[in-house]
Specification:
This protein has 246 residues and is of the alpha/beta class. The protein folds into 2 domains: 7-124, Fructose-1,6-Bisphosphatase, Chain A, domain 1 (2-Layer Sandwich); 138-243, D-Maltodextrin-Binding Protein, domain 2 (3-Layer(aba) Sandwich). The protein is built from 7 helices and 11 strands. It has helices at residues 7-24, 33-55, 87-92, 148-157, 167-176, 190-202, 235-243, and strands at 60-63, 66-69, 77-85, 98-105, 108-116, 121-124, 138-141, 160-163, 181-184, 206-208, 227-230. Strands 2-1-3-4-5-6 form a 6-stranded mixed sheet, sandwiched between helices. Helix 1 packs antiparallel against helix 2. The protein is globular, with a radius of gyration of 17 Å. It binds adenosine-3'-5'-diphosphate and magnesium ion. Residues 64, 82, 85-87, 142-144, 165-167, 186-188, 192 line the site of adenosine-3'-5'-diphosphate. InterPro entries: CysQ/Inositol_MonoPase, Inositol_monoP_metal-BS, Inositol_monophosphatase-like. This is 3'(2'),5-bisphosphonucleoside 3'(2')-phosphohydrolase. Keywords: Magnesium, Metal-binding. It comes from Gordonia liuliyuniae.
Length: 246
């Protein structure tokens, strides 16, 4: 019989274990490009969903890579999973990709784990340190560059943009104190940001929609197109910059 783990330990084991699978298949002399991304998505999803089925048979699951498990509309506990965030970066052989595992309870990310397996790092909402230390003047943006809103923040707060692939890797750059903010707009889904936001909130960071509303999860349509994760010291200034038209 499998051991009985707490939700926090289970989330961490899933993020770490899927990371081991993904690290284990990154042999670029055997597979590369889109094929290794596809097989990574599939294998990480298969392992995580099987472990959740055994350990949490009554919980619902929302994942990027599979149909919903359970009835999300009637279940308060929903695991929100991205088995491989930054599939493009993984396929390209870079180190900025992540595994996201969150447990949302009544829409709030109560437990979260994000692993950055190629960097050997695991962030857990129950153990993460509060972010302190000097501000850096830097803003994480997509590998594809600025969105309209991240450009507005960079311009108005005179912040330098740092391009990082994967939503989890960008959010953990704020958690590590490498950058002060991650501003996203233009599209994303709950699995892309639920676990990162869960860890960021636990680290004392400001997390909200770009119009300042709180972020809630397990919506009927899991589209979560915009958000800001930033140091609390600059939250008012960032939201001001986002609300002022050009
Ligand atoms: N405009 C958009 N619409 C939908 N998803 C988006 C998006 N921009 C970014 N994402 C998703 O957010 C994650 C991080 O993207 P980026 O590194 O460009 O910021 C990626 O997840 P996946 O790799 O899990 O598909 C990507 O697909
Ligand atoms: Mg993703």
């Amino acid at each position: 019989m499998p051991v009985r783990l707490s939700d926090a330990d289970l989330a961490a084991r899933l993020a770490e274990g899927a990371g081991e699978i993904l690290n284990g298949i990154r042999h670029r002399d055997l597979l590369d490009g889109r094929v290794v991304g596809d097989v990574g998505d599939m294998l990480a999803q298969a392992w995580i969903s099987t472990v959740l089925r055994v350990h949490r048979p009554h919980d619902a699951v929302l994942s990027e890579e599979a149909e919903d498990v359970g009835d999300r509309s009637t279940t308060s506990r929903v695991w929100i999973i991205d088995p491989l965030d930054g599939t493009n970066e993984f396929s390209l052989g870079t180190d900025n990709w992540a595994v996201h595992v969150a447990l949302a309870v009544d829409g709030d990310p109560e437990v979260a784990a994000v692993s950055l397996p190629a960097q050997g790092e695991l962030f857990r909402s129950d153990t993460v340190d509060e972010v302190t230390g000097p501000l850096t003047g830097r803003l994480a943006v997509s590998r594809y560059g600025h969105s309209y809103h991240s450009a507005a923040v960079a311009d108005r707060l005179r912040m330098g943009a740092v391009q990082i692939g994967s939503a989890g890797a960008k959010a953990m750059a704020v958690v590590r104190g490498d950058v002060d903010a991650y501003v996203h707009s233009g599209g994303q889904y709950e699995w892309d940001n639920c676990a990162p936001v869960g860890v960021a909130l636990a680290a004392g960071l400001h997390c909200s929609r770009i119009d300042g509303r709180p972020i809630t999860y397990n919506n009927p349509q899991p589209y979560m197109p915009d958000f800001v994760i930033c140091r609390s010291e600059i939250a008012d200034a960032v939201l001001d910059a986002l609300s002022t038209p050009w």
